[in-house]
Every structure is written in C-alpha cells, then in structure tokens.
Amino acid sequence: MRIVVGITGGVAAYKTVSLVRLLTEAGHDVKVIPTQNALRFVGAATLEAISHNTVDPDLYTDVADVKHVELGQTADLVIVAPATASFLARTAAGLADDLLSNVILATQAPVLIAPAMHTEMWNNPATRRNVATLIADGYALLEPGVGRLTGSDTGKGRLPEPEIIAEAALKLLALDLVGKHIIVTAGGTREPIDPVRFIGNASSGKQGLAIAKAAQRRGARVTLIAANLADANVGQAIHVSTAAEMASAMDEALQHADALIMAAAVSDFRVSEPSDRKIKKHEGENGLELRLIRNDDLLANAALKATSASPRTLFVGFAAETISDSEELERSAREKLTRKHCDLVVANDVSGGKVFGSDQNSVLIVGRGLETQKVSGNKTVIADAILDALLPRFPDLQQSSN
Length: 402
Ligand code: CTP
Description:
Shape: elongated
Bound molecules: cytidine-5'-triphosphate
CATH topology of the largest domain: Rossmann fold
CATH superfamily of the largest domain: CoaB-like
CATH architecture of the largest domain: 3-Layer(aba) Sandwich
C-alpha cells in the first residue's frame, strides 16, 4: 500500500516518526511530506531514515514530474498527523500553497486527519466551522485525545497514539461492502400547507450523508434518497420532498437492495388538503385550522413487506428521542426495533436540539442478539460503527464473521 504521511508544524510531530515506523514495518511504502513548519520539530534526515524514502517538501523541485499530482494520484491513503488549526483552516478553504496541500487536493484516496492543538484552539468557533466543513467534504477526522498538552495544561487536543492513528487510517481502506447495494435516506421530509409553506423538521441530513459516504468508501453501491438536501453528492442521489415521494423512491430502489438505512426524519403527519394557492393573512383573521392526517410508516411498511423475501433486505431504523436516561432510551429503541421489524435501531437523545446540525453525535446501537453499543464521536465515526454492526448480518457474510 502506498501511504502519504503529511506532518504539519506542531510539537506532536515527534510522535509521527513512530507512526511512520509502524506503517513501514507493516510493509507499506510510506512517503512523508512535512510542511516547512513541521521541519522545525522533526528533521528531514530522521524522516528519510525511518520511511526509507526521500523527503522533499518543496513544491518547486522536480516540477517536470508534476510531483504533487503524481503523489496524490498514486497514494492509496493519506494521513495528516499532527494537523494544526492552521492546516484545518487552509484545507477547509481548499488552499493549495505547499506540496502537502496540493497533494491533498489532487488525491482521490481517503484522507485521515489527526488534529492536535490546545483545547482553546480546538474549541474555537473558527476551528469548529473548519472541522464541520472537512467532515462534510468527506475527510475522516480523528478526534484528539484528552490529557497532558504541551505546556502544563491538560484537556482535549492531544494527538492520539500512533497505533490508534494507524488503525483508524487502515480501516479507511476496508472494502468490506463491495457487491452490496445500500439505500440510505437522509434529510427531513416536508409536507406542504400551501405552495410556499410546509411542515418540516430540524433534521440537517448530516448523519445520513455521512453513512452514505462511508458505505460508498467501503465499496457499496449507494442509492441516496435525499429529502430536501441541497448537497447530496453521493452515489446515485434521488431528490424527494414529501413522505409520499420518499415512499415511492424507496419502493423502486428496494427492489434490488441489500440494506436500507433509514436516517431521514419522516413526517408522521401531512396536511389533509394543502391549498394550491398561497393562503392570505386575512383568511386567518380568527386563526387558521389545519387538519393533519397520518402518513404511512415507511420503514415499518418496507421491512414488513420484505420479511418473506430471500435473501432478505436488512433494515436499520433511527430513533431520535427526547430521553436523556440511557436505559430508557435503550428500552424505547428496542421497542422500535420490534415494532418496525428492523435488524438494527440507532437511537439518540435530541433533547435541547443538541444533535441537529451538529457534527458530533452520541448514539446507542441496538439489534437482536447484539449487545447494545454506545458510540460517540463525529458523524463519520457513528456511520462506520453502524456499518460495522450491520456487516455481520448480511446473509453471505454471516458464516465468515461468526
Ligand atoms: N419513520 C418512517 N416513516 C414515518 C416515521 C418514521 O419510516 N412516517 C422512520 C424514521 O425514518 C426512523 C424510524 O422510523 O428511521 C423511527 O422514527 P421515529 O420518528 O423515531 O418513530 P415513530 O414511529 O414516529 O415513533 P414515535 O412517534 O412513537 O416516537
């Protein structure tokens, strides 16, 4: 495997030497690209000796070889550790002003970014924004560890140990879903009141998108049914708005699917008779009454329909609850698992709006015969944990994983 290891200018750069050693000892061809500032912390000679490859961070040497494109194109995996706040900002903005940033823009390979900085810098709103952008752009981000930082302070911001970085990075290369067709629904449905108003919900679609991207990265063919999402650039995207539109898109896609992951927030009700022209203010002088009728439960219907099919499609439901007690949350998730004929249910507590639109999530994954798993982290971490829990349930993979 050809792995590019980028190093940016942080004290934790010394740990990256061990990371490079781990990767070379595992038989990988490692090309190290330090930034100029990284070379203030570790020497090029050390990196050359440990990686058994030349180290030249200059964008303007060997120009005839178009080095940045060649390195980006031939990499199977890119790791950046440590990644400074400045690197996160430049990458989020798409800047390409040195060899490492050019390689990152040129590569099609998965990129794992392992940030390290002081807690205040990690929590800074600008850094939060940049992290959110990077996750949305499909970069894998390893959460910094909590502990002793460079000065006498402690907190979140430590570079994880080299073994953890190597394991997370190599996991990005897993192609364990090749041959599987996975449908992911994401976003929130909208039920029209009139041509300009609707009943909607606070779902941002980020968790569903993260699942679709992770499934695609792991080799699955992905159909994304996107409810009211502008940015749905994953797999084959089908855009829908209402629950009824989502139902018919699902019907079609489910004919050839191995799994449905129902991350969308589907409205339980719709307006019985939406107006076909804008309702004027004066029409509601004494208030306005809307009659709502129940929408079908799309997940339960689809899962019920598939019970006798062979091989059976797998179904993953979500349960966004306002329940802070984790035992009660688990009970409610298990109830949904049975009621909706699902294989897995992913439950989280959305009290106080702490999940919607955020890049962090904390969920319980429940399933029949599965010990409940609690997973916290960014939405890509949650996405991979859901796919990991689903994997052994595919009929053709059951034997090998048992
Ligand atoms: N769901 C669905 N169709 C609906 C409502 C929900 O397919 N009309 C799906 C959601 O996409 C989610 C799961 O069912 O995967 C659970 O949604 P949730 O709103 O938590 O469940 P409800 O059945 O609405 O239960 P309750 O209102 O009792 O919490």
